[in-house]
Amino acid sequence: MSESSAELAVSVAEVGKVFPARKGGGVSALEAVSVDIAAGEFVSLIGPSGCGKSTLMRLVADLDSPSSGTITVFGKSARQARRDQDYGIAFQQAGLLPWRTVRENIELPLQLHGVGKAARRARASELIELVGLGDFGDRHPDQLSGGMQQRVAIARSLAESPRLLLMDEPFGALDEMTRERMQTELARLRAETGAAVVFVTHSIPEAVYLSDRVVVMSPRPGRIVQVLDMKLGGAEDRTDALREDAHFFERVSAVREALHGDPASAARARGAETR
Amino acid sequence: MKRLRGALLGIAGIVLLGVLWEGYKALAPAIGVKIGAITVLPRTSDAAMPHLATMLQRALDPVTAAAGSPPLWTAVLQASLFTVSIAAVSWVVGVIVGFLIATLMQRFRTAESALLPWVVLSQTVPLIALAPLVKRWGSLVHFGAFDWQDWMSVALIASYLAFFPVSIGALRGFASPEPAHLDLMRAYGVGWWRTYLRLRVPASVPYLVPALRLAAANAVIGTVVAEVSIGLSGGVGRMIIEFAQTGSSDPAKQWAPIFGAVLVGLVAAGAVALLGLALHKYRRNEVTA
Amino acid sequence: MSRSRTVRILAPILFGLAVLALWQGLVVALHILPFVLPGPIAIGTQFGLRAPFVLTSALVTAGNALAGLLIGTVLAAVFAALTASVRVLDELSAPLVTAASVIPIVSLAPALYTMFGADVQTARVLIAALAAFIPVYFNTLRGLRTVQPIHRDLMRSYAASRWQATRAVTVPGALPYFFTGVRVASSLAVISSLIAEDFGGPINGLGTSITSAVSSSNYPLAWAFVLGAIITGLVFYCVTVGLETAATWHRASA
């Protein structure tokens, strides 16, 4: 990666998203959202259900189009970035193809983009090792636990060595212990790849532990309430010891206060489960 | 707007089929299209493929040349009515039997183990091939004033075809409530019977409705075919065979009862669709059989 | 082997044997005459004695059913692929295919005999093909339309072309549905080709043989043919269940 850290991975400017509703009008999911994410930076989007954090990530991925505003990814339009495969993506469900083995699932994007067989195999083997699934390459998804399936999905998102990773609550369906282990691994993977990450979550400790910055959002319509700097050190400092650190707890409290700070918006949040 | 488009295109599809029929008849050779010795596309002579207009005209003419013979279409309609009533009886019998078997299998695990493979295999058994034997059994049944009628043999065979989808659909439906719902019933201290009545039966409706549709189609097929193999006259099945024998001299005539059979199928499907509408509140998450 | 597994395998076998024993017992004890119901032993004996004859008839019916199943399956798969991708075609054909699924296809048999000749098997093959077409078509179409949203997102995020998405996700996803359709179609093809024989055509095949054995009062032979029909149906069923199981391997979760 030769880019200077000053380069922007993602730039979101004045973005709004309105979903058409059945009875005229429309539901406003996002309103005037602006945020910049630098290359190599880890940014979490956090907020209650219905705050539009997943929607925002889908807009960056060009899985949906914004109703207003612009999104640029590495200086191009989101659509062009998708066509150029500038990002890797992982969802809350692993979304593996059940008829493919672990290896074949990881090879899928490479295969779709015309990478040769030998190169595909080599890359898949590398990634299988990277996510610690050494002996499971020839298993099928139904033979794996939820945590293992999610590792495959993450390996798949890393297949083309993207400079940007988009992750929509990838650990949301996992139990707390598996979750913490996966977080530690993600921190390691990120240190090794140097990719920028946009990470959607509703877990405060998860966001604090992983992120350089945490974007706190409020629902109805989705807006950015506050952007908090974590200042917890570089990727190599995100070890298990950090979870016990006083500074870590301080940042968790800060995010919590930002989330609950405005009682009126918290009340609105309860009424709007539109996710 | 969308519905109108669907309806118009649907009608266009039916018209297109008619155009295809007439177009093929006009363009293809009279002996059909042969590959080697095998006719792969039909003959187009008037005997094999009458004009649609001829079929329609024939339906309006009397059945036979004899005086006082009713128009063909009324005779076909009458036969269709006869067939549809036998099919209805078979459907009801098949549904009841299928439902009871499914209930038995739901109540007793061992019954499910013992019966289910046989219920599945029963569909590979062409009972319809037994039709002549069923007729013979029927002729031996007498209870006082009650005599077994041939139409009952037809209904028996048809209901054999109808029960299968119902028993499989109901069994799957009975097993469909979520564990949480079953736990809830348990927590209420409710026994098997009330769980069955209040939870399993309503939960089975989404599975049952497609099964009832299949059962209706099967009942119609069973009735038409059993009429032929048992030799029961009065219905469209027998009429198809009778008119087919006059095919060479009066080719358009045999198409009238075929359309009658189509009508019977559509009426049966329509009736079940109405039933499905009545059960709509149980069908919030429909599945397909 | 656990108890429940033992029950699951043994119960149906014991039940089947009990029914056969009861049947044989009743036939002997009540002196039921063969024209009413021959015992299983008599049927088995007759089946053994006339095996080549039964086999010849069964091969005719099975051949028609197989040819019909193959033709119907291929046509249904192609047509389902077309209607899944071209909406107008779907709308044009929807009422016709829906009607075809509820009407007794076999009633077309006499007309088909006149159209294709009553001295060849073509009409019977076509009846089997039409009967097989319906379930394969409906199942395949449903399969092609059930793409999980997450897989659709994934394909979009890969900027995959429509053809790539079809190959990677849609077709493999539809395969289990397709094979379920084939399994349902296999039984229908056998039964349809068998009963098409009752509507005319050449004098061979199981359906015709059963009718002629009954009309010459040779009831055990008629039952031997019925047994032949059952075995034919079973073979078709088992093969297609095998295909279906293979196609749904590893589809449990994920």
SSE arrangement:
The complex is a heterotrimer of chains A (about 280), B (about 290) and C (about 250).
Chain A (H helix, E strand, L loop, with lengths): L7 E12 L7 E12 L3 E5 L6 H8 L7 E6 L2 E2 H6 L3 E4 L11 H11 L4 H14 L15 H13 L5 E5 L7 H18 L2 E6 L2 H7 L2 E6 L4 E7 L16 H15 L2 H9 L4
Parallel strand pairs in A: 3-8, 3-9, 6-7, 7-8
Antiparallel strand pairs in A: 1-2, 1-4, 4-5, 9-10
Helix pairs in contact in A: 3-4, 3-5, 4-5, 7-8
Chain B lengths: L1 H26 L5 E3 L2 E4 L10 H9 L11 H36 L1 H14 L8 H8 L3 E2 L2 E2 L2 H25 L4 H9 L4 H39 L5 H10 L9 H24 L11
Antiparallel strand pairs in B: 1-2, 3-4
Chain C lengths: L2 H27 L10 H10 L1 H35 L1 H16 L6 H8 L5 H24 L3 H9 L4 H35 L9 H10 L3 H29 L7
Going by CATH, what is the homologous superfamily of the largest domain in chain A? P-loop containing nucleotide triphosphate hydrolases
Any idea how many domains of chain C? Answer: 2
Ends of chain A: how far apart?
36 Å
The computed structural class of chain C is: mainly alpha
- What is CATH's topology name of the largest domain in chain C? MetI-like fold
CATH class designation of the largest domain in chain A: Alpha Beta
Q: Tally the helices of chain C.
A: 10
Quick tags:
heterotrimer, A: 275 residues, alpha/beta, Rossmann fold, 2 domains, 6-stranded mixed β-sheet, 4-stranded antiparallel β-sheet, 9 helices, 10 strands, globular, disordered N terminus, disordered C terminus, B: 289 residues, mainly alpha, MetI-like fold, two-stranded antiparallel ribbon, 10 helices, 4 strands
